[in-house]
Amino acid sequence: xxxxxxxPTPTSVPALPEEVVTRTPVQDVALPGxxxxxxxxxxxxxxxxxxxxxxGPQGIAALTETVARVRARADAGEVQAVGITxxxxxxxxxxxxxxxxxxxERGQATQIASAGHAAFASIIDLPVPTFAFVNGAAMGGGVExxxxxxxxxxxAGAAAFALPETFLGLVxxxxxxxxxPNLVGPAAALQVIVENxxxxxxxxxxxxxxGLGIADxxxxxxxxxxxxxxxxxxxLTGTVPVQRADVDRDETxxxxxxxxxxxxxxxxxxxxxxxxxxxxxxxxxxxxxxxxEAFASEDEALGDLIMSDELRxxxxxxxxxxxxxxxxxxxxxxALARPVTKVGVVGAGLMASQLxxxxxxxxxxxxxxxxxxxxxxxxxxxxxxxxxxxxxxxxRVSPDKASFLKRLVTxxxxxxxxxxxxxxxxxxxEEMGVKQQVFAEVEAVVTPECVLATNTSSLSITEMASGLExxxxxVGFHFFNPVAVMPLLEIIPGAAxxxxxxxxxFATGRTLxxxxxxxxxxxxxxVNRLLGRFMGxxxxxxxxxxxxxxxxxxxxxxxxxxxxxxLGLVGPAIALHNSETLHRAFxxxxxxxxxxxxxxxxxxxxxxxxxxGRPVPDPEVLAMAEQPEQPVELTVEQAxxxxxxxxxxxxxxxxxxxxxxxxxxxxxxxITGAGFQFWNGGLCPLLDREGVSExxxxxxxxxxxxxxxxx
Length: 711
Ligand SMILES: NC(=O)c1ccc[n+]([C@@H]2O[C@H](COP(=O)([O-])OP(=O)(O)OC[C@H]3O[C@@H](n4cnc5c(N)ncnc54)[C@H](O)[C@@H]3O)[C@@H](O)[C@H]2O)c1
Prior knowledge:
This protein is of the alpha/beta class. The chain contains 28 helices and 19 strands. The protein folds into three domains: about 15-305, 2-enoyl-CoA Hydratase, Chain A, domain 1; about 335-515, NAD(P)-binding Rossmann-like Domain (Rossmann fold, 3-Layer(aba) Sandwich); about 525-660, N-(1-d-carboxylethyl)-l-norvaline Dehydrogenase, domain 2 (Orthogonal Bundle).
């Protein structure tokens, strides 16, 4: 441990609006076994877990002062160790980013970076052993403050542990790119710093944090703090060994790990996410850099990235999922919502079974499933029960909860069980006639107030409701597969839908934990339409003669995976059905690929086949591909211009048709329903950033400064 401390001038950082300050009260704890006194710093912003601890300028200044006071006491021999822990359920989730949109000069950005560095460096420089007791969620700067300590315990109940900065368009810039590789080696560090964030922002489970060597010990949540203090006492007295694997500092191996991560980043983003590439280079330099050099490089990186449009788009996306998602545009007054005490699910297939499980888990009310015959009903109910068993095996539910959930979900071939239901959702075949028939049968059984919801992915809600006695209770309720994973729920009123039914749909969607967006009753709604246009143009370019690899590079970083990998995941038959539906509704601008038709007819599961766990183009599928007489081979740039161009055109049409209230809703839908990237702000900020919206529509979709650096 070195003995220098730097104290930032709190007034030198920009004042940010309404900072919820994380306080750092200190309490002396007499450690067992004569290990001495530990000064325990508790990070606590005074709110419950719904408002997690973050570090803004005032919080960082307060932390710096606290550490300086603790240091004086350590120097005086009054404390023998320092511990840092969080408030219930939350350790700390990183920098308070709410002020970044107000940062207009690079100097302000680097000040934010260096103030955090100075605070965390003062922890590293404490003259006594330091411990982080990671009791709950830790992200970004929350992980970095833990890395600044000598030792770490983590609770088995910690909900999340991650360095998500590159997901937003930043780098872990308060020491993460230096401290983590020096603790666990570059490969493990880069998994946490770039690969996980670029894989739909994957978080680590506490066991993985231990397995990677980031935490020294994993402790049960029940008595986490007491057990952590006992463990710390053991470490101090030498009765508890701390074992860490040596980091291989060989230059070749270190560089190879960085090169491999760089390759992953380039494959996923084609270099269009500046934060991820910058992070790889910071980790590369961390092998030989001094702490001062490394922290200075992180400051520079944050300065550049905070002033980048990618980060501003990332923050815009963050704001959409955090705030706009909670106040859906166009939702009627909540007070109009009717209670839902029993649910009916028509169909017991792929979607219906997932819906039954979700309703039972989230609403805790009886759910009755029906289908055409006993066998299908038994399969559906059986699937739900086996999923509950799997949750029990993973200890995600208690044995009591598991039997409760199983009792809630029952099935029958008769719809009589719907008589006292107040919410019935259908997920039968995607055919208008079948769905109209189903709703007519349901209407004969239920009360006039019972909401009839449809999981249709493309059909008209108005038409579906048209033959009913009470069409005002029908509403589109479009989930995405897999239901447990995809946050989006498109809610579509038909022409006759009344506010009570619509309010009930929004309230129910919220209780189900979904991001609800109001969508106009138009073919294929938002995500399937935009994704259909995207996949269609991609396929058209390939069918006309551009190699898949070129087309992939053109769109890398737009969707979470290359389009033909996504095709395999969605299922070729569903993708074909979607493109045919869109073609029928909107004409030739939606391409139906002859190659895809052949692939589906041949019963192929996708463009790629798995060989040794890796996807390679299936030679049989390649043999079915279109062979144009006069192939047109586009460059990466030309292909990108074409695909982004048609997306801008579709966005323009959807906005003028009033499919959603605002461009923000399109972005929120693409982020939560199709996994489009934060650092692109979903879609509209990207179209603005690359000048495509001005070229195609003659205007920006969002004003300067909303999802970009103010002009
Ligand atoms: N699969 C997806 O990815 C996905 C995603 C979003 C929405 N959807 C929509 O969900 C709906 C269902 O799709 P799925 O993939 O679950 O299909 P599926 O074929 O797995 O299930 C449909 C089920 O409905 C049953 N059924 C048909 N007619 C019925 C009737 N008259 N009464 C009772 N049950 C009947 C069938 O026996 C079958 O079990 C469709 O409207 C589809 O567009 C599907």
